[in-house]
Amino acid sequence: MDITALKPLNIPTPFHFPSKLSPFRPFSLFYFKPFITPSSPRFFSRCSLNGSAKIISQEGILPRGVGKAVNEASRSKILQVVLVSPQIPGNTGCIARTCAASAVGLHLVGPLGFQVDDTKLKRAGLDYWPYVVVKVHDSWEDFRDYFRQQEGEKRLLAFTKRGTKIHSEFSYRKGDYLLFGSETSGLPPEALLDCKTEPFGGGTIRIPMVETYVRCLNLSVSVGIALYEASRQLNYESLQVPSESCIDTSEESFITEDIFA
C-alpha cells in the first residue's frame, strides 16, 4: 500500500490556536495563592506580578465592611461565639451569618485553617458581614488575655461531644462565651482546661446525637443549635435590637457571583 497516496483527515478540534501562539508557551502573568497550614502565622504573604510580596494582617483582610452597620452602643454582649482554630471557611461564613441574625459577637481564635479573605468565607456570610462584629485573636493565649480584661460577669462554656451536660438542660447566663473547636480536632486541651477551671470556667456541654455511625455534627449546625437554645433561655434579649441602632450602608455588596450556586 502506497502511504504517500493517503490524504490527511481534517478532523475539527474544539480549540483553535493562532499560528503565532502555541498552547505550550509559558505565560508571563500568573497569580499564586499560598497554601495556608494550621501552623501558619497571622501574617500571610501574597505574591504580586512584579515579584514583590505584600504582608497583610488578618484584621486587615476581613470581608469588607465587617461590623460597620452596628453602632458601638448597641453591640450586644449578652452572648458571644468563639471559634477556636476553625478549618473550613464555608462553616465560618455560615456561623457569621447566624451571629448577625442573632445579634451576637463572633471571635476567631488562631491559628486558622484559611485566609480570612477567602472567597468561600465571604460567600457563605453573603452580604451580612456589616451586621456582625468579628474579632480575630492570634492564639488561645491572646484570647484568654482579652477575655480576662472584659468587664462584668462572664463564663467560658466548651461545647464538645464529651461534655458533661446536655445543651438544653444547661442554664445559660448573660455574658456567656460559647466555645467551639476545630472541625478536625475539636477544642485544644488548654481551652478545655480553662472552661473547667474557676473563676471563669462554666463547664463542658454536649449536643446529644446518635454516635454509632455519625462522628459529629457540622460545626455551623452545632453553633446554631447551641446559640438559639441559649437565646431562648434568655428570652431572645439579644435579638431585640432597635432598628435605629443599625446603620444603613449604601455600599454595593461584595457578592458578585450567584449566591445560590
What's the arrangement of secondary structure elements?
Elements: E1 43-47, E2 53-57, E3 79-84, H1 89-102, E4 105-109, H2 119-125, E5 134-137, H3 140-149, E6 155-159, E7 165-166, E8 176-180, H4 189-196, E9 201-206, H5 219-233
Parallel strand pairs: 3-4, 3-8, 4-5, 6-8, 6-9, 7-9
Antiparallel strand pairs: 1-2
Helix pairs in contact: 1-2, 1-5
Strand order within the widest beta sheet: 5-4-3-8-6-9-7
The whole-number mean of residue pLDDT values reads 74
The number of E-state strands comes to 9
Kindly state the percentage of residues in helix: 10-25%
Main sheet attributes: strand count, strand direction, barrel closure: 7 strands, parallel
Strand portion: 15-25%
Head-to-tail CA distance between termini: 57 Å
State the helix count.
5
Q: Can you offer a commentary on this structure?
A:
The protein is of the alpha/beta class. It contains five helices and nine strands. It has helices at 89-102, 119-125, 140-149, 189-196, 219-233, and strands at 43-47, 53-57, 79-84, 105-109, 134-137, 155-159, 165-166, 176-180, 201-206. The strands form two sheets. A seven-stranded parallel beta sheet has the order 5-4-3-8-6-9-7, sandwiched between helices. Strands 1-2 form a two-stranded antiparallel sheet. Helix 1 links the parallel strand 3 (79-84) and strand 4. Helix 1 (89-102) runs parallel beside helix 2 (119-125) and helix 1 (89-102) packs parallel to helix 5 (219-233). The longest helix is centred in the last third of the chain and has 15 residues, at 219-233. The model is unreliable at 17-60 and 243-261 (pLDDT under 50).
